Amino acid sequence: MNLVARDLVLSFESSCDETSVAVIENGNKILSNIVATQIKSHQRFGGVVPEVASRHHIEQITGCINDALKEADVTYDDLTSVAVTYGPGLVGALLIGVTAAKVVAWAHNLPLVPVNHLAGHIYAARLVEPIEFPAMALVVSGGHTELVYMPEEDKFEIIGETRDDAAGEAYDKVGRVLGINYPAGKPVDELARKGHDTFKFPRAMDSDDNFDFSFSGLKSAFINTVHHADQIHEKLSREDLAASFQQAVVDVLADKTDRALKEFPVKQLILAGGVAANKGLRERLTKNLQAFKNTKLELVPLSLCGDNAAMIGAAGEMLYRHGARADATLNADPGLEFEWLKDEEK
Amino acid sequence: MKILAIDTSNKPLSVAVMDNDQLLAQTTLTTHRKHAEFLMPVIEDLVKKSDLAPADLDRVVVADGPGSYTGIRMAVTAAKTIASTLGIELVTVSSLLNLALNVQKDNVLINPIFDGRNQNMFTGLYRWNDGEIETVISDQHINLEKWLHLIAEYDQQIVIIGDTDSFENDMRSALHSRLVVGQSLEGIPSAAKLGQYGLSQSPVSNVDAVVPRYLRLTKAEADWKKLHPNEDTHNYVEKV
Ligand SMILES: [Zn+2]
Q: Does residue A140 contact residue A274 with C-beta atoms inside 8 Å?
């Protein structure tokens, strides 16, 4: 019998195309993490259709709650708090999780903790090992590419972000040109491993004196190369195209991260988000980090890179301790962002 | 039996708490379409002011559509989660039927209308029979012209309520003096009437499976279905 009081968060995630509910013990142990994915449905349309996503979330939500409690072998009475993603994401999708979480908090008189989806991605690292501060996170996903500096556990400060497409978005668009359906990250990564960087696509902003990214130029260069070859009936190697694209993405992400680590020495670098599952990126950062003796690399495990509620519970427990609370008026905030690092802190 | 009734199908928000058919508390707002922000605070407030705790509730009655997609999703998500998390009964009622309950008149046909844009409407036809409301033509998303065709065969007076503005002139040209435009208050849903009606209905057997009554596919799905007429559209969501 466990005599120590357990802290149990029931957490919700529904910002895009996954409905997920989890139970997290003491902020770092997954008791359950139910994920209902809609990928198959949206593959019909070649990408996520927001109205379809909302409709699927509502089909899944209560079933996911029941499964999460059952698998964790807990009841509502055992819970300490409810945590929920309230942004960023698709508003109609977010609202399903937010509404369900508000209901559960009200019905069982539990505190409600609002969680930024990206804080969730970063805090997935905590489900493997404690995060040490100051820390840096490179968050790369279908909707986001940013470098986040964390001086303390509840402080998230953007030091650089994409000026146009997110890395994952670029993968999906390039995938389409290669005849690969959404989500294209994994297949393009696999294809890239069989080819070589023969096309030398541009590395946008790589030498700029900031930590921002840009992928639209790379995407256009890729598309132009393929279209030009089509016009003169030349057949290009899909493997080399994928490898050249991936190399350009990885170079920019890794170089900017290197520069950030030099300016902000941290104890840990966390690689998080859906694109963090990319093998090419994981290998490159592992190699680069050898030059930073005092910085430990924390690769979020593949199973927790995609959207899931376990990561929201991990961040939710931390935010709860720091007093974050929402009431019944909590709304979805589709454009929610971390604050930029203030100049005087640099 | 303590009942919580919710209708946020369109711009108005209406919530009521009932003890059987006795109204304990009701709030109806028509000014904002801020259901995401207002729905839960209103529910909390009314349950509390009825001297009840959430656990005292026995049944949730929800107007599950048709209506604005976001509106019906807010109500249905709240209602099914309340029923599921408290382990209580859930009754779903057509939002059009709930509006029809406002017209307490015999020997007329009641025609609630929600604007579906571009001369389309979400609508149905109802009448009272021996104190019970009954469906004459079931709810559907339909073009005005086709609807006029459907209702042409009835010779009773037709009372239109709800989003009547965009349709009134065309309907009058077709129905002449048979058309009666309902009073504006009859076009606003009442959660108390919804709760009272829901008292007599049987609860759903599977709360988890409840989804809004959209009555219309998304455009993406409709286009896709045209290209894939025989595809099974179930099982698109997988637990991983
Ligand atoms: Zn994400």
A: yes
